[in-house]
Specification:
alpha+beta, four-stranded mixed beta sheet
Length: 237
């Protein structure tokens, strides 16, 4: 994947930005895009995700980590986050990205999966954290486009394969102005009944259900009900 170096660079810078939020902001601040969580729980979650990825890379196993551990005060949280980040960043630097490992993506299962997955996990959660404190983070186009591709080519097929969602009966096109478009659902070869148009960052946030169809940056043409049915589906876990 030609974007891997860019994804790794963005992962490193975004993890640092996320840590800065944990170090500076009130950890009791609610995170509206993650109902029931505050900044402390969000930081605990991301530190756990880093441990999960490290186990897949280094030990080649799926590690059972509590989803959002409550670590109490800032010092304990930062230690948890820093230890997790140090482990995964070291693993991603020391293991060749074409090396086989455990992950939940399609074959071939290599370390490259975790470069991509950890980048997008961190980017989305930095956005969550920044919105919570009133300072939304920008997601650049290259990263957003790759995140869209990950949702549609990895997460959506996985959701269907694991029967977490029913097959999408509506065929809908997702389009980025001046960029790519993607067709999901319905029968192969059929015409899309609706088109959802948005900038790359807005479309990524829409797929992650961080934005809704009512957002000013989202345009729907055609069968609006079909578009909304697709957007109401849990395309990501």
């Amino acid at each position: 994947m030609s974007t891997l170096p860019a994804l790794f660079y963005r992962l490193v810078t975004t993890a640092a930005d996320f840590r800065a939020v944990l170090a500076e902001e009130d950890l009791a601040t609610p995170v509206p895009s993650c109902p029931g969580w505050n900044l402390g729980l969000l930081g605990g979650h991301l530190g756990g995700v880093y441990r999960f990825a490290t186990a897949g890379i280094v030990d080649k196993v799926a590690l059972n980590v509590e989803d959002a551990p409550d670590l109490g005060g800032r010092e304990a949280l930062l230690e948890w986050f820093d230890t997790g980040w140090s482990a995964v960043s070291t693993a991603l630097r020391e293991h060749p990205w074409d090396e086989e490992c455990w992950n939940f993506g399609p074959k071939p299962r290599t370390v490259a999966f975790w470069v991509r997955r950890q980048c997008h996990e961190t980017v989305i959660h930095l956005w969550d954290a920044c919105v919570a404190v009133g300072s939304p983070a920008h997601i650049d186009k290259v990263i957003a486009l790759d995140g869209i591709d990950e949702v549609l080519t990895m997460f959506l097929p996985r959701q269907l394969r694991m029967q977490r969602i029913a097959p999408l009966g509506d065929r809908v096109r997702l389009a980025v102005p001046g960029g790519p478009s993607y067709v999901v659902g319905g029968e192969d070869g059929a015409e899309a009944s609706a088109t959802i148009t948005a900038t790359a960052d807005a479309l990524l946030l829409l797929l992650y259900r961080r934005l809704t169809a009512e957002a000013d940056s989202i345009m729907i043409n055609g069968d609006e009900a079909a578009a909304r049915r697709v957007l109401a589906t849990e395309l990501t876990p």
